[in-house]
Amino acid sequence: MPDSEIMKIRRHVLCSALQSSANEPGSADCARLSKEIILDGAARYRCCIHKERAIVEERLKLIFEPKKGPVVRVLAEACNGCEMHRYLVTDGCQNCLGQFCSSNCSKKAMLFFNGHAFIDQSRCVECGLCAKKCPFHAIIELRRPCEESCPVKAISVGEDRVASINQEKCTSCGFCVVNCPFGAVVDASDLVTLHHTIRSGEYPVHAVLAPAFVGQFGRKVAPGQVKAALLKLGFAEVWEAAIGADRAIALETVEYGERVHKGERLMTSSCCPAYVAAVHQHKSNLIPYISSTASPMVQVATIIKRQDPKAKVTFIGPCIAKKAEGRRVESGVDFVITFEELIVWFEHTGINLLNEPTLLMEGPSSFARSFAKAGGVANALQNYMGDKAPPVYRIEGIANSLKTLEQYTRKGEIGFMECMACEGGCVGGPRTLINRPLAERAVDEFARSSNA
Hints:
Layout: H1 5-23, H2 30-37, H3 49-64, E1 72-74, E2 86-89, H4 100-103, E3 110-113, E4 116-119, H5 129-133, E5 139-142, H6 145-149, E6 155-157, E7 163-165, H7 175-179, E8 185-187, H8 191-200, E9 205-209, H9 223-233, E10 237-240, H10 241-261, E11 266-268, H11 273-282, H12 296-307, E12 312-317, H13 321-326, E13 335-338, H14 339-349, H15 366-369, H16 376-385, E14 392-396, H17 398-411, E15 415-420, H18 436-448
Parallel strand pairs: 9-10, 9-12, 11-15, 12-13, 14-15
Antiparallel strand pairs: 1-8, 2-5, 3-4, 6-7
Helix pairs in contact: 1-3, 1-8, 1-14, 2-3, 10-12, 10-16
């Protein structure tokens, strides 16, 4: 996928933070570093370099102090204050005799000039009645990308036109992060803290790769070369999260059987943290339907820490919501970084993946490696249970998952529901580096290489 200007800035700031921390361990002089990143001269993206530096400084704080505040947040300085959430009369206006748009507007915001309707935005309260009543659908609603992308309506804009996030509603899905055209919605980064931890040598740090990692670093890069590069970075060992997926599906199978024995009819998956958070925060009455089995990430972290209680665990994937899940003490995960953050680290260290040896990667089943795709969890459960498998349902999208779960529970449906926040599953995650069809093919090829 082509690099956007937002992505270039984000990577430049991350790389600069890594470089600064390498030269001055523990450095967090964000004001000084922002001046090194945004040099004197004409501004490129904002009104002046002072604003550009202020935005970069706020970005740096999320890198040097990632645990101070929520995972996903809005940088007020970067928010453009989009005046987009308003109604606009298009050329479809027919200047009809009925003028239903005007007669239904209590604020008298509809004006007519040269046979065309217009909206006086100073009077408009954005109720939407004009759009609803127009028989020609000539009035359209323009919504801000951040608001439009949030499936749980956790992000809104105040009177000052600056966006803010209601953290009690936010699921950390990251859709607003990738959809804000100004890069004003951001996610905290553990990259520099992780880098320090590995360099200190105080703890053995293990890497856990999400099943979606295959193909993300280039079509010609083999999975075993990613493993070799991670070991070169200083990780003590590299694990596939798919190992935890095999364990999770075995436990979910047992749990489903126990639920059926108790008279329960429906159970949903628990591996997607954004979906789980959405149920807890927006449909708490549906919490009992979520499997109590820990996610594959947590399963692997548990294995690692049983082997070595002093070990630190790093999860690497395409998911921003995993950063929120990893913050929970019971997860056993110490750091979560995305594929993009790992790419920056490779570039900073001068690692060319194609020059790395292809190390052996074995252990997980083909079904576990397919967890990255929508339908992977459901297919794994069906395979594991064989003839005793219940009906399975594959649901994509947070809003769709909540709606479908509510409908199925009301109807008394029987079976297992796989619920994923991202379209296409994890291969459609907010921090994937390649398009979904390519990612799906790569995951399928790697799954077929499994011996189990």
